[in-house]
Amino acid sequence: MSRSNVIQHRIEGPLFIITLNNEKKLNSLHLSDYTRMTELLLEAEANPEILCIVFQGTGRFFSSGIDIDDLSRQLNQPKDFDLSSELVSRMEYFTRTAINHKKILVSCLNGPAVGISAAMVLLCDIVYSMNDNVYISFPFSKMGLANEGALSESLASKVGPALAHEAMFFGVPLQYDQLKDRVINRNYNMTNLSEFNSKVLEDLKQYLESCSPESLQNMKRLFLTVEGSSKIHAISNEGITALNLIHKNVPNKRIKAYVEQRRSKL
Question: What fold characterizes domain 7-264?
Fold first, then answer.
């Protein structure tokens, strides 16, 4: 599939919809795909008619996270500090853009979310699930990496330190019951993906009809005033840690074993 088709978007009234469309690879994403989503987030923010950005998936996963083959290629480039810094800064830019976004961010979980894509879900203001067959997982320690996407702050603040520590240290998935009312706002209890995505959009449009756009924007700003600074501080520390691990070649030593383990489970 052409990379231009992996991240799709459209506008429906006040909604800017970003669809992850790599179903055959469980919506795994290249680094360039996260860059594309950053561009779309900025485009949506600049559009005064947009009130919500909605992330939706295709297939049975919301997103299995970073494409391991693409990540391996990037990490196997000559060990140049500027290159490593660029890799880290691109992910940090995506995360920073999501954190500081002025519009309401909504994730529609049609299935599991993994890694940096799961971190993206935690940065959203509202999360809906198609049913209870969803989970989020953070296999960074298995890949020789560490916290990314402001997870150092967002995960513990959402689910509490006890669950967050086990999920991060050991890659233990957080199941629906652990996410309900902490991360997930509402379970639609549906089995048809198309109907789920359509129903969420219908509900959001109905909610927004009775809301003042100015009120929504100011509410989002006030939430950011309280929550944003701690997340920004987190991603700065996470970026430094990522650079150190990459330059010690830790990810390259771990990724092959992780890939083989993951393929046996999918």
Answer: 2-enoyl-CoA Hydratase; Chain A, domain 1 (3.90.226)
Residue whose pair of structure tokens reads 């771990």 in the numeric block: 254
Single out the catalytic residue among 23, 43, 49, 148: 148
Nearest to 195 by CA among 85, 95, 261, 110: 110
- In 3-state terms, what secondary structure has residue 238? helix
250-265 vs 68-75: helix axis angle to the nearest 10? 160
- Where in the chain are the domains? 7-264
pLDDT digits (tens, 9 = 90+) for 17-76: 999 999 999 999 998 999 999 999 999 999 999 999 999 999 999 999 988 877 777 666
Which tokens belong to 176? Answer: 């629906």
Q: Helix, strand, or coil here: 203?
A: helix
CA 243 to chain CA mean position, Å: 21
DSSP 121-174: HHTSSEEEESSS--EEE--GGGGT----TTHHHHHHHHH-HHHHHHHHHH-PPE
pTM as predicted: 0.92
For residue 39, give both structure tokens: 């561009």
Mark whether 148 is an active-site residue. yes
